[in-house]
Amino acid sequence: MDFTKHTDCFTLSNGVKIPCIGYGTWKTEDGAQTRDSVSAAISCGYRHVDTAFAYGNEVSVGEGIRASGVAREDIFLTTKHWVTFRGYEATVATFEDSLKNLGTDYVDLYLIHWPAVEKITPDWKELNASTWAGFEKLYKDGKIRAIGVSNFEQKHLEALGEYAEIMPMVNQIEFHPGYSQLELAKYCQNKGILVQAWSPLGSGAVLSDEGLAAMAGKYGKSVAQLCIRYALQHDVLPLPKSLKPQRIAANAEVFDFEIDEEDIAVLETMPELGFSGFKAEEAPADALVNG
Ligand code: A2P
Q: Which of 4, 52, 117, 196 is the most exposed place for a label (fewest CB within 10 A)?
């Protein structure tokens, strides 16, 4: 990893460049909170913003981007398809809703938010394949610069590989000290799929850990910065979120230190901490939606 600033880019398998830290907006309330924090992140130099249809804040993300005064084409914008719109036709239709919400005519990256899984939909393979066919069409039509998935485990990627004409360029998964999913990350990277980290700070749950605080202190850094650097040193793209401009800025100051190998090993093997409880096969998003 030889990035020196958060606007340096990973290159996706189709050649598209993606800034190496993104600003996350999960659980950020629609309205002023999202608009102002997105705009603050862009003022802090972030050029990559991640949202989702299901976050319910796409409208305000679009407003925040416009309020920042930075040109749309200078921002890398990601949104995600939601589980209630699976299948080719619903996928193509709901994508237009996201564009309208965001007030833009293209997105840089569109992700399947959660895979269909057997315990909810026995025809999960076909369902993921037809959703993906919608993604491929939108990509070929030039409405999306890159396409990918989120929360896919190896079996879902393998199944998609049987049908896909274009393989996903990204898999966005939960990744932080205490829940690293290293095997899955390696599998993706070996296939040329960029891994992104949602909740790179364990949604804040790892920040008060004493061991992590001691390690971060050694480098003169905060635990949040340690976690963000941890992702980058695994070639994983972190998507930290904060509503506080000072923290938003500090979360990008991770290019003046390097976690040594011994500490990386400690972080990789520490006991589970801060796991969200969300997992495609065990606690699938459809189950949450369907009650
Ligand atoms: P806040 O918005 O009050 O800063 P994740 O990115 O893993 O989802 O974690 C987000 C959580 O971590 C939020 O609760 C956020 O709270 C908190 N957070 C983000 N950055 C920092 C930081 N630098 N220091 C402390 N807490 C942070």
A: 4
For the residues of 9-71, what is the DSSP string, one character each? EEE-TTS-EEESS-EE-TTPPTTHHHHHHHHHHHHTT--EEE--GGGT-HHHHHHHHHHHT--
Specify the ligand 1 atom closest to the Cα of 199. Answer: 7
* Segment 189-238, tens digit of pLDDT: 999 999 999 999 999 899 999 999 999 999 999 999 999 999 999 999 99
Q: Examine the pLDDT at 290 and tell me if it is beyond 80.
A: no
What per-residue confidence (pLDDT) applies to 191? 98
Q: How far apart are CA 127 and CA 134, in angstroms?
A: 11
pTM of the model: 0.97
Tell me which residue has tokens 């709901």: 94
Which residue in 23, 55, 110, 230 is the catalytic one? Answer: 55
Centre of ligand 1 from the C-alpha of residue 252, in Å: 13
Query: What is the distance between the alpha carbons of residues 229 and 90, in angstroms, rounded to a whole number?
Result: 38
Ligand 1: residue of 244, 246, 248, 273 to mutate (most ligand atoms within 8 A of CB) is: 244
